[in-house]
């Protein structure tokens, strides 16, 4: 059994939580992602940056097999979570996604109450044994998402009635309620105003203590603000991956430098 | 001259007007179209429209007004006493019209000319016999005043027909000359034609309103007649439906409403789960191949006329249910039953429910599905807990529309549900519905002014109000729902 | 198993298990997923099964209506009986009624049987001629009057057999049922079998079903759909001529010109409601307005056509507006930008581009109208009509039937032979609908444009 190995890895925050080797993605005929190798570390915020259509969102969606829902997408190569291949036949994407949560570009609360939105994940995965326990999970998740104080008096109001920033934090609370190990965020601030963006960014930094966070972003400033490690994608290739500070101050690849200085993108 | 011929002549004149107008415009500028305000064709069109439209409008109006004027004039000729023997003015006029039609045939058969026809007298000639010979069967002997009225009707309607022909043709010619006379190079023919066309277009859009008005008007007027003859309390609060030929009928609404609702309920019980699940399967699960085959197959069900479903109920489903369920279970021995009609109507409504639900499910944004999948929900959990709740208002609207269809459906219940008005719970019993009774009361041989016939209009009004309310509520819900997702 | 420590610290967080081994709960969820999927597939299966049962029921009952039992035999057209004056004067010949022709046929049938050596023991002349349809004499009379030169000769004539004999060959009537039947006896059926062996009787294609008029309750073998098909064709013509231009005009106004105010909103709500008003209500409208108020004749295609026009208008308007909406505004802008008026932009550019959509919608509306029955019942189309209506436009005012109403008529008659006729009529109706829809699909395929 490889349980020992898993335990070993999870103890240290600097070892790789997820590893990808030789990942190729095809959308029909289109070769969208070419040969990506990357290690996502535990307890870190990793930012994916790059111009539109560079494959960063595509790769993010490979990490919890969201690409399965797109009929024409094909994923080749190997992605491992704690040393286990997530594209193995025996893996049920449903259980995988409970461990690798996702937050989307546009806030997409369900047309249910705030409480039901957060409780949805724990309910379908059967994570709680009693109503009291579920209440506890909802409260903790909302607190972690820095939303509790704003909504604690109206937990049964519809989630769609919140402001854009609140909705996005609700979606984050919803994602962390299933206590995932990795949290994927696909441009979580692109639909938000600057104040809401600041709130969410602050939140991401706090989440780092418990989850590995992977964030796709358009904004280099945002990547610099929130992430410890940064990966730069260009035309379906992973161009450069390293410490955020090093990528922004001393890029190794000329393409990275052009993008960071604003010449491409 | 017949209406068809007049229309053709008017259209011919209009085409002539087009050619003349175009030529006149061109000759006014010595063949150089550039000095005209508009393209030469527009001058032609302006003449065409001025020739055809007023004349044809006059024709249609005349066709509407003439019968009213004629009726009121001729019915005044029949003395009160004779009207009383018929029962109502309406019935007298029906006979007058039939005799007037018959007179032509009589004249042709006997080789009579106008004078000979005029000389015919009801008390001397056996009018009833002679009319019967030419296929006009009358219930009683011809009363002299009625024959006179019929003669008057005949000659007047002939004269009016002639007058109409002349008036319409005059209008066409006048329009043609007027438009031709107005043509000059500075005339803004294009604007004129476009204005005219716009008015025509707007007029066409009013036909829908006119139709609704016509429906309400005819239902209300005849219902008022009915309630004059029959107490509305007996109609709305009685529990028996038992029409009699010789009067003294019980015309209670409730047995019919019960049958209607019972059949519709069974139809929805069949169509809603099947239609909804089919829509879910097609939009969420089915692969390309299944969809390419199943979707058109279900749409074929929607394109089959209701008479086919009616026949299916009559010759296949009814006997099947009777032989395999009703009789073995001791529940009845009738092949037409609530179950038969409900089941077949349910099949008819499957495509209706499924295509409406399909639209509505597809309107739920993909981001909602992504959110749920991203949390690790299975597809069925996503459908049951996210998509269906999100689509609920739209689906409720679809079900209401289906219910309105079921309530208004006629042929399936006429051929499958039976004709006995009953308040019963047994679904294998034959019962009847509002629409069945509308058909049977209006196609039977009862006289038109009797409550037994007029009740059909009150039933129609009830049906119209009921379905209208359902439709309006459903449309409002669906519209709100669509706005929610833009 | 070592506990893979919960590092997230959330309440409810549970020890992680391997991704590769599904736990009980996941298996349960997957089972419920499979169940749900099965229900979906079952719903599809039920719908398709219903369609198949429906079509087989109709085809199974109706295909036999296209074949009919005929008796073919030489008939001596005796001039002494049929043309008493001997001058060939058609007016004089018309005086001979069908009874005279029946006698001629009876004689010919006895002679034909004798010639083939078929014994007719125990059957009297009436029973023998009972094998023939009661329509036979009338059809022979029509043939002779159409061609008086036949009189005096012996010609081979093909005559309809009685409906029960026809049913016997189609399996509807059996020897057992004939014992209880006052219209036919087993002996007569024996004779029919012998006649078939001798080649006097045969089952062949029944053109009378498609082109003949209706026949009375007692002669199901002679009932045809000609009048109904013609009546339906007249009504479709009226619907097309009225509903298409009016519908397109109304849609253009509402979609392109109408100001957005309460009044046009009312019109729109009105149209979507009209599309959902039960069809029978339109029948009441037709009865009250067109027949009672305007005095148009009952059972006439013109009234049916007008009622169906009003019913079809909403369908056409809705389809046309969708087609107009699908033409992108850039087309309008392009035309307006080079100085075309709005009306020109629409008639020259938008309308031609929207035409395939409009025509598809119109054909679908026509197909609906063709299958509509209930409103036609109320305007008297249910009456028994044998005579063909005249040529249009006068023929629009003659009594006629319509295909779906004819189906209903057939089902109201007692003789079981009419079930076959009704199903056969449905097959004809469905073939027409199929053709119309095929045209609509072709139009869509051929001209569909995606912007």
UniProtKB/TrEMBL annotation, chain A:
Top-level taxon of the source organism: Bacteria
Keywords tagged on the record: ATP-binding, Nucleotide-binding, Phosphate transport, Transport
Keyword flag Transmembrane: no
GO MF terms, alphabetically ordered: ATP binding; ATP hydrolysis activity; phosphate transmembrane transporter activity
Taxon lineage: Bacteria, Pseudomonadati, Pseudomonadota, Alphaproteobacteria, Rhodobacterales
Pfam family, one: ABC_tran
Any one Gene Ontology BP term: phosphate ion transmembrane transport
CDD domains referenced in this protein's UniProt entry, alphabetically: ABC_PstB_phosphate_transporter (cd03260)
A cellular component term, taken from the record's GO annotations: membrane
Protein name, entry field: Phosphate ABC transporter ATP-binding protein
Residue ranges of domain ABC transporter in the record: 18-260
Coiled-coil zones: none
Gene3D superfamilies, per the entry: P-loop containing nucleotide triphosphate hydrolases
Automatic annotation (TrEMBL), chain B:
Gene of this entry: pstC
Recorded topology in the membrane: Multi-pass membrane protein
A GO cellular-component term linked to this record: plasma membrane
SUPFAM superfamilies: MetI-like (SSF161098)
A GO biological-process term: phosphate ion transport
Protein task: Part of the binding-protein-dependent transport system for phosphate; probably responsible for the translocation of the substrate across the membrane.
Swiss-Prot/TrEMBL keywords: Cell inner membrane, Cell membrane, Membrane, Phosphate transport, Transmembrane, Transmembrane helix, Transport
CDD domains cross-referenced by the UniProt entry: TM_PBP2 (cd06261)
Localization per Swiss-Prot or TrEMBL: Cell inner membrane; Cell membrane
Identification of the protein by name: Phosphate transport system permease protein
TrEMBL record, chain C:
Swiss-Prot/TrEMBL GO biological process terms: phosphate ion transmembrane transport
Domain ABC transmembrane type-1: 229-440
Region (Disordered): 1-25
Transmembrane segments: 36-59, 233-254, 274-296, 302-324, 350-371, 422-443
Protein name: Phosphate transport system permease protein PstA
Subcellular location: Cell inner membrane; Cell membrane
InterPro entries according to UniProt: DUF3333, MetI-like, MetI-like_sf, Phosphate_PstA
Family membership noted in the UniProt record: Belongs to the binding-protein-dependent transport system permease family. CysTW subfamily.
One term under GO cellular component: plasma membrane
One MF term in the entry's GO annotations: phosphate transmembrane transporter activity
Keywords, alphabetical: Cell membrane, Membrane, Transmembrane, Transmembrane helix, Transport
Source organism of this protein record: Gemmobacter lutimaris
Main location, first listed in the record: membrane
Topology in membrane: Multi-pass membrane protein
Coiled-coil segments on the chain, per record: none
A Pfam family that the UniProt record links to this protein: BPD_transp_1
């Amino acid at each position: 059994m490889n349980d020992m190995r898993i335990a070993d890895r999870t103890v240290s925050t600097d070892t790789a939580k997820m590893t990808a080797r030789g990942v190729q993605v095809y959308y029909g005929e289109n070769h969208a992602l070419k040969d990506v190798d990357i290690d996502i570390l535990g307890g870190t915020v990793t930012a994916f940056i790059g111009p539109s259509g560079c494959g960063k969102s595509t790769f993010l969606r490979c990490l919890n097999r969201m690409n399965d829902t797109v009929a024409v997408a094909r994923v080749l190569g190997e992605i491992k979570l704690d040393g286990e291949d997530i594209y193995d036949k025996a893996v049920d994407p449903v259980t995988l996604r409970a461990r690798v949560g996702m937050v989307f570009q546009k806030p997409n609360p369900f047309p249910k109450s705030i409480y039901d939105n957060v409780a949805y994940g724990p309910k379908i995965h059967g994570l709680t044994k009693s109503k009291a326990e579920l209440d506890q999970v909802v409260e903790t998740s909302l607190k972690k998402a820095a939303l509790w104080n704003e909504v604690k008096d109206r937990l049964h109001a519809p989630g769609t009635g919140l402001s854009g920033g609140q909705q996005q934090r609700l979606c984050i609370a919803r994602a962390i309620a299933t206590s995932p190990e990795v949290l994927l965020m696909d441009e979580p601030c692109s639909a938000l105003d600057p104040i809401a963006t600041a709130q969410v960014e602050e939140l991401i930094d706090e989440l780092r203590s418990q989850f590995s966070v992977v964030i796709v972003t358009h904004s280099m400033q945002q990547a610099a603000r929130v992430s410890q490690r940064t990966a730069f994608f260009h035309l379906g290739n992973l161009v450069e991956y390293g410490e955020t500070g090093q990528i922004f101050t001393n890029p190794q690849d000329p393409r990275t430098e052009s993008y960071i200085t604003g010449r491409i993108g | 001259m017949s209406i068809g011929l007049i229309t053709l002549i008017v259209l011919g004149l209009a085409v002539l007007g087009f050619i003349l107008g175009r030529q006149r415009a061109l000759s006014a500028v010595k063949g150089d179209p550039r000095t005209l305000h508009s393209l030469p064709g527009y001058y032609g069109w302006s003449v065409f429209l001025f020739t055809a439209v007023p004349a044809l409008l006059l024709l249609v109006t005349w066709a509407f007004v003439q019968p009213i004027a004629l009726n009121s004039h001729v019915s005044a000729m029949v003395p009160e006493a004779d009207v009383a023997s018929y029962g109502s003015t309406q019935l007298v006029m029906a006979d007058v019209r039939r005799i007037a039609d018959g007179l032509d045939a009589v004249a042709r058969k006997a080789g009579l000319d106008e004078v000979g026809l005029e000389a015919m007298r009801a008390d001397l000639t056996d009018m009833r016999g002679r009319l019967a010979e030419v296929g006009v069967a009358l219930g009683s002997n011809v009363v002299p005043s009625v024959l006179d009225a019929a003669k008057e009707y005949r000659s007047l309607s002939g004269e009016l027909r002639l007058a109409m022909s002349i008036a319409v043709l005059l209008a066409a010619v006048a329009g043609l000359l007027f438009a031709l006379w107005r043509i000059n190079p500075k005339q803004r023919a294009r604007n004129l034609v476009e204005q005219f066309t716009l008015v025509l277009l707007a007029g066409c859009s009013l036909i829908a309103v006119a139709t609704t008005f016509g429906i309400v008007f005819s239902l209300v007027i005849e219902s008022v007649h009915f309630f004059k003859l029959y107490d509305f309390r007996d109609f709305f609060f009685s529990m028996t439906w038992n029409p009699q030929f010789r009067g003294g009928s019980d015309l209670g609404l409730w047995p019919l409403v019960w049958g209607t609702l019972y059949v519709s309920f069974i139809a929805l019980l069949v169509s809603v789960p099947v239609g909804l699940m089919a829509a879910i399967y097609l939009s969420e699960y089915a692969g390309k191949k299944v969809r390419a085959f199943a979707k058109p197959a279900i749409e074929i069900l929607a394109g089959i006329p209701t008479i086919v479903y009616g026949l299916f109920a009559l010759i296949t489903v009814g006997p099947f249910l009777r032989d395999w369920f009703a009789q073995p279970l001791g529940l009845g021995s009738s092949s037409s039953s609530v179950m038969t009609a409900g089941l077949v109507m349910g099949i008819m409504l499957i495509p209706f429910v499924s295509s409406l639900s399909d639209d509505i499910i597809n309107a739920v944004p993909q981001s909602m599905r992504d959110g749920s999948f991203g949390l690790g929900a299975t597809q069925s959990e996503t459908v049951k807990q996210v998509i269906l709740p999100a689509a609920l208002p739209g689906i409720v609207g679809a079900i209401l529309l289906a219910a309105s269809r079921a309530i208004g459906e006629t042929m399936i219940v006429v051929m499958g549900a039976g004709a006995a008005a009953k308040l019963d719970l047994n679904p294998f019993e034959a019962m009847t519905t509002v629409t069945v009774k509308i058909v049977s009361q209006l196609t039977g041989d009862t006289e038109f002014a009797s409550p037994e016939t007029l009740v059909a209009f009150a039933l129609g009004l009830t049906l119209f109000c009921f379905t209208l309310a359902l439709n309006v509520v459903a449309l409002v819900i669906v519209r709100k729902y669509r706005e929610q997702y833009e | 198993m070592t506990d893979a420590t919960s590092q997230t610290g959330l309440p409810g967080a549970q020890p992680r298990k391997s991704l590769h081994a599904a736990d009980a709960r996941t298996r349960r969820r997957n089972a419920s997923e499979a169940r749900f999927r099965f229900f979906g597939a079952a719903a599809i299966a039920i719908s398709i099964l219903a369609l198949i049962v429906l079509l087989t029921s109709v085809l199974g009952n109706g295909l036999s209506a296209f074949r009919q039992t005929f008796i073919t035999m030489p008939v001596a057209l005796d001039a002494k009986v049929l043309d008493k004056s001997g001058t060939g004067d058609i007016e004089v010949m018309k005086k001979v009624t069908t009874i005279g022709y029946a006698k001629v046929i009876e004689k010919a049938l006895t002679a034909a049987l004798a010639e083939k050596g078929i014994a007719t023991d125990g059957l009297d002349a009436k029973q023998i001629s009972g094998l023939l349809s009661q329509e036979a004499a009338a059809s022979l009379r029509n043939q002779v009057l159409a061609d008086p030169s036949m009189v005096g000769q012996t010609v081979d004539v093909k005559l309809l057999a009685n409906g029960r004999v026809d049913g016997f060959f189609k399996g509807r009537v059996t020897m057992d049922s004939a014992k209880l039947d006052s219209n036919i006896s087993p002996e007569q059926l024996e004779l029919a079998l012998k006649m078939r062996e001798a080649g006097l009787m045969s089952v062949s294609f029944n053109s009378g079903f498609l082109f003949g008029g209706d026949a009375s309750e007692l002669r199901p073998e002679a009932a045809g759909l000609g009048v109904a098909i013609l009546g339906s064709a007249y009504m479709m013509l009226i619907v097309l001529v009225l509903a298409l231009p009016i519908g397109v005009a109304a849609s253009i106004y509402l979609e392109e010109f109408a100001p957005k105010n309460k009044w046009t909103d009312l019109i729109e709500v009105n149209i979507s409601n009209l599309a959902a008003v039960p069809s029978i209500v339109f029948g009441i409208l037709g009865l009250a307005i067109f027949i009672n108020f305007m005095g148009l004749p009952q059972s006439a295609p013109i009234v049916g056509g007008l009622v169906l026009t009003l019913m079809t208008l909403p369908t056409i308007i809705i389809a046309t507006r969708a087609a107009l909406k699908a033409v992108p505004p850039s087309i309008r802008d392009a035309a307006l930008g080079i100085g075309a008026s709005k009306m020109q932009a629409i008639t020259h550019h938008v309308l031609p581009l929207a035409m395939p959509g409009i025509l598809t919608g119109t054909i679908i509306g026509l197909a609906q109208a063709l299958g509509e029955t209930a409103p036609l019942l109320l305007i008297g189309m249910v009456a028994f009509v044998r005579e063909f209506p005249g040529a249009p436009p006068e023929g629009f005012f003659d009594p006629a039937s319509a295909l779906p109403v004819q189906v209903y008529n057939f089902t109201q008659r007692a003789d079981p032979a009419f079930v076959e006729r009704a199903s056969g009529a449905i097959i004809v109706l469905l073939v027409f609908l199929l053709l119309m829809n095929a045209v609509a699909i072709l139009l869509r395929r051929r001209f569909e444009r995606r912007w």
